Amino acid sequence: MSDATTSRPSNTSVGQTIRPEEAAHFGKLAKDWWDPKGSSAMLHKLNPVRLKFLREAIDLHWTGDVRDARPLAGKSALDVGCGAGLLCEPLARLGADVTGVDAAPENVAAAAIHAERSGLDIRYMAGELAGHDIGTFDLVTAMEVIEHVADKQAFAAQLAVRLAEGGLMVLSTPNRTVRSRALMIGAAESFGLIPKGTHEWSDFVTPGELSEILASAGLIMGEPKGIAFSPMKGLHLSDDLSLNYIVTARAA
User: Fold this and answer.
1) What is the reported pTM?
2) Quick check: is 99 in a domain?
3) Residue spans with biased composition (Polar residues) (predicted)?
4) Percent of the chain scored above 90 by pLDDT?
5) 29 or 124, which is more confident?
6) I need a labelling partner for 199 at 20 to 30 A (CA). Which of 23, 25, 148, 239 fits?
7) Least confident interval from 38-47, 69-78, 137-146, 149-158
8) Number of structural domains, the chain?
9) Annotated binding-site positions
């Protein structure tokens, strides 16, 4: 059975990463997070694109069989900034023993209910990642999260601590470009495709900046892949990094 409890605090001493106003903003979206036509509709469209990249990265990292329906069987996965579990549930179906952590208690409560109804055993907890003594994980993901945290370097350090030896990390985030400002804030938020107030453009991170942040945390970033948009294809993986991008990282 899924649970939404917290584990005992750890003694990890790192900066606080949660912005209370960000947690409150996303917590208000919890009730309809799983509605593909609701306030998180864009995440529902984004999720298959992220999963395509993630599956390829998993197969390459562990040299698995691309035909295997459960390539993460026997492995543990941690999704940080998990929201109501849109990524946690597919990771569980890929065979992983999944833990999801989110800043908003409302989100993990909604996530636990949805997982239980779906027959999935996923552990969820709320609060600072550093506040939970949960060990290390073969796979660590943080999708569309680093642009929302108060201390990006501290956040990367927290992620690095949770990555097991030989493990794989995958992150995605908007790029700080004129195009991302025009489309993700100017257009998407104005037309209700993304809830207003979701993004602050100055918090977006360029690939070069993310590489430096990860390097300072002892991680090597892989080659970024763009997540682009076109009227014909919708959201899709691309060599165009100007809107959003997704990357792998490994211990140096």
Assistant:
1) 0.90
2) yes
3) 1-16
4) 73
5) 124
6) 239
7) 38-47
8) 1
9) 50, 81, 102, 143
Distance, CA of 163 to chain centre: 14
Please give the pLDDT value at position 194: 75
In DSSP notation, the chain reads --B----------------HHHHHHHHTTGGGTT-TTSTTHHHHHHHHHHHHHHHHHHHHHTT--TT-S-TTTT-EEEEET-TTTTTHHHHHHTT-EEEEEES-HHHHHHHHHHHHHTT---EEEES-GGG-----EEEEEEES-GGG-S-HHHHHHHHHHHEEEEEEEEEEEE--SHHHIIIIIIITTTTTSS-TTS--GGG---HHHHHHHHHHTTEEE---EEEEEETTTEEEEES--SSEEEEEEEE-
How high is the pLDDT of residue 15? 62
Q: Is residue 55 assigned to a domain?
A: yes
The answer to whether residue 15 is domain-embedded is no
* CATH code assigned at 155: 3.40.50.150
**Annotated binding-site ranges for S-adenosyl-L-methionine:** 50, 81, 102, 143
Give domain status of residue 106, yes or no.
yes
Residue range of the domain that includes 203: 20-251
pLDDT, one tens digit per residue, over 63-110 is 989 999 999 999 999 999 999 999 999 999 999 999 999 999 999 999
